[in-house]
Amino acid sequence: MDKKTKDTLLGGIINNPVFVLVLGTCPTIAKSTNISNGIGLGLATLFVLLCSNVFISLLRKTIPGEVRLPAYIVIIATFVTVVQLFVAKFLPDLDKSIGAFIPLIVVNCIILGRAEAFAAKNNVLLSAIDGVSMGLGFTLALILLGAIRQFLSEVCKLTFFVSSAGGFMIFGLVMAAFNYVITAINNKAFSKKVLLDMKAPKAEDVKEAE
Amino acid sequence: MKASTKNVIKSIAVLSVIALVCVAILSLANVFLKKEVTLDKATVKFLNEKFATTAPTTTGTDSDTAYNEDYFVMLTDGELSNASGYTYKSFKSNSSNYVSAIYYAQKGANEGVYYIESVSVGYQNPISVVVSFVIDNGDFSIQNIAVKEQREDFGDRKTQVLNPETFFYYVSLVKSDEDMNITDADIIAATGATTKKSVAGLNRAVTRAIDTMNKIYTKSDEIKAEINKRGGQNG
Fold first, then answer.
1. Which residues are paired to B116 by β-bridges?
2. Measured in whole angstroms, how far is the alpha carbon of residue B68 from the centre of its chain?
3. Is residue A58 part of a domain?
4. How far is B217 from chain A (nearest CA, A)?
């Protein structure tokens, strides 16, 4: 696997759309009150991300730059409508719970952001991987926040954390912890690389010694 | 042809093709994913419990029994057409104001009551209401009104008209004037509603149900005869 594919695959974690890129904050705080909402909204967003990334990547050389944004919005809105119809028909309980937020996926910054920053510049396979990776990153972030907020409100009876203000506090704390861990891992990996570079003898030095 | 003109034409052509492809995808999705109104367990529970005023249920039995023993039936397009000459499409005002189902209580304490489910868009989402009608002495009257589905009160918008605490004010207003000469201002005054579009949506849905009943109540015997042809099969 080449470096670009690997980076794209891990993009959902290393460049997590919620905790690192800070995109899609509105639905994250509004609908991460419990785990099931998080899974539902996360998977709906994943589907839209995957389909729109593939579609936009396929058409990246055809869509003129001047009309790329309206074209992206039309494509994204189509897949959001498909998800909306699916949830309304097969998952009525989920529809009641997060239904109002499904149409808002159209204006979720993650979708348009990935279309503009990635799918419009890369091939279909990489764009599909990016869609899945970012979608899973978003879903995991929603599940993590949902689990914490559900635990605090239902087990610890701290119902404040179901509110938007409580959600914002949890969001900030988890974001800080997440970035601390990611930075620590990156620093460790960087130190290891520097150390290895220092230890490895240079080719000219080896030749000279011979 | 100038380069800028060429660019404009190309942009329009590409956007049109994308729009056409998207329309094709949505049409296909609509074929497989369109939500159809059916007389499922949840609907029977809704009809049996939401319309009860004095007893716990309208049929006098629990909702599971009401469902299993076909206390309610939903009129099919064919039955409606055979009995009254109308189809569901006849009761459609436009794509956002229509009758989605007509139910009939064929057994139980509420036998003979019609339940008309109609939909209208309020602030931005559809409001689905069911109005129950009793036919007596060749005329009909509204028995009750209940909201089946709505998404008008999410977020901070308080649409008092749809709140259970104030909804009965609206019901009594409609019952006092079944010709529906009720203005949005009357409803706002009676219920304390703050979102005019929700009020208008609800009112349109109820008016559609009453208009529908106005057209079919004289055909009640024919409708019963059509239902009897089923031989106990629920719709």
1. B102, B131
2. 23
3. yes
4. 32
In a domain, A200, yes or no: no
Q: Does B34 touch chain A (CB under 8 A)?
A: yes
Q: Which two three-digit tokens encode residue B5?
A: 């003109």
CB contact under 8 A, B151 and A99: yes
Minimal-distance CA residue of chain A relative to B153: A100
Restricting to B residues 5-24, those with a Cβ less than 8 Å away from any Cβ of A are: 7, 10-11, 14-15, 18-19, 22
Q: Are B97 and B126 in contact (CB under 8 A)?
A: no
Q: Which residue has the tokens 């003109």?
A: B5
Q: Is the pLDDT of residue A106 over 80?
A: yes
Q: Rounded distance, CA A17 to CA A20, Å? A: 6
CA dihedral B173, B175, B178, B180 (to 10 degrees): 20
Whole-number pLDDT of residue A190: 78
* Summary count for chain B: helices (H), strands (E): 8, 5
CB A134 within 8 Å of CB A49 = yes
Predicted-complex ipTM score: 0.80
Range of the domain at A22: 3-180
- Give me the count of residues in chain A: 210
Q: Which of B22, B27, B148 would you mutate first to test chain A, the one with the most A CBs within 10 A?
A: B22
Chain B residue whose CA is closest to A75:
B22
Contact check, Cβ <8 Å, A62/B11: no
Cβ-nearest to B22 among A64, A74, A89: A74
Domain annotation covers residue A175: yes
pLDDT score at B6? 86
Residues in Cβ contact with B157 at an 8 Å cutoff, skipping those fewer than 6 apart:
B123, B194, B195
Let me know if residue A197 belongs to a domain.
no
pLDDT for A203 equals 64
Q: How many domains are there within chain A?
A: 1
